[in-house]
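Lecture notes, unit on binding sites. The following record was shown on slide 14. It pairs a sequence with calcium ion.
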Amino acid sequence: MENRYAIILAAGKGSRMKSSLYKVLHPVAGKPMVEHVFDQIDHLNVDEVVTVVGFGAEKVKEQLGERSNYALQTEQLGTGHAVLATSEVLGDKVGTTLVICGDTPLLTQETLEELVKHHEKTEAKATILSAVASDPTGYGRIIRDQNDHVEKIVEQKDATPEELLVTEFNTGTYCFDNALLFEALNKVGNDNAQGEYYLPDVISILRDQGEIVTAYTMDSEEESMGVNDRVALAKATQYMSARINEELMRNGVTFVDPSNTYIEKDVIIGADTVIEPGVMLRGKTVIGENCIIGANSDITDSTIGDHVVITSSNIKQSTILDYSDIGPYAHIRPNTILKEHVHVGNFVEIKNATVDKGTKVGHLTYVGDATLGQDINVGCGTVFANYDGKRKHHVTIEDHAFIGSGSILVAPLTIGKNSMTAAGSTITQDVFEDDLGIARSKQTNLVGYAKKLPYNE
Ligand code: UD1
Ligand code: CA
């Protein structure tokens, strides 16, 4: 096989985005667009990837790190000029070079493989990935001659009214014979409506030299979408979402309303799990089998076991093991581990805590910086007072303890095995095994006093 190279064009400002964030870093389904492009070329056995950066270069480099080489295009003088910026790295290489824009997140590996195959099979020196759209406004059009051979690409702004009627357009992705590409780029001028050096001009230059130039027309218009503004960004997210959800459904996940459910690309979900409407699953979240992820739950970078039921809750960077149930309206904050059969009920917030098997935290409670053993019952309205204004302190509760409703547990504290705290207690000292901690003032009943109050007379 010939050597293969890839150039990712990512130096443009993306002014149509009207954003301080660099265009190719805008996320689609939770991943920056340029990362999607990286996924697309992942299986093409590319020997070297060069990303052309300019405006916002450092941010793009931070994102991609050492997976790519970089070429700096200091002034954005057009896509042809951008490719030329890679000549120091690629100029003298022999092989096939794939050029792809950083703003086409929906293209698939399969399509790019087909493009490369078509290029190799036809022994072309340049192959355009084209698509057909009912409304190709904004795209460069593929102009073919009487024999249906590709003649050139005309940009929207340079096209004649007749050319604008052409529905086949340039997706901005191409395969080139590397040596001929750089040779032709040196001949590209900027005498056009935008005063830019257009990469598509390489096509007509090669054709005029008598080289074979072809287009591989892909079926899916949606896949070819280039994201230039926020309207396209939202559309791309919608398409990507539909694709992700469909794949999950084919793998055995039930969606009550897939069009109203947002799942990021790297999320993994097991079979027979049900996803209700309004759910958002983000980042590196992994969900097991036979779970119910209830309406409007929002889960980020968390691991959920099997048979877990989550009802309208928010979970971040936490682990929830099998048969536990959460919510409605629970807030599980980073670094929480709930082991098997844990019950967390409504309006409970848990942060940086480990809760062992079978423990129940049923209602209106804050648990922070704590270790809870097995089969503990934490009563309604309990507060772990973990913060003294400067530092966080830890509470440990041992197996089978019973925390009475409305307990304030002032950390640092250890509540021993099988012990209890009385409802309404402010616990400031350790409670030992089998003991009852009670810390509330004794009740006094003033006889007949209620009746004596002036407003009750
Ligand atoms: C380009 C094509 C058009 C095609 C469309 C597909 C040209 C002249 N036109 O138009 O035929 O239909 O893509 O989406 O190529 N970039 C640089 N440096 C520059 C200019 C652009 O790196 O100086 C990068 C951008 O970051 C972007 C890509 O090249 O990732 C395409 O540039 P963009 O301005 O989006 O081109 P389009 O107008 O969409
Ligand atoms: Ca574009």
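Take-home: Residues 101, 103, 226, 228 surround calcium ion (ligand 2) (CB under 6 Å).
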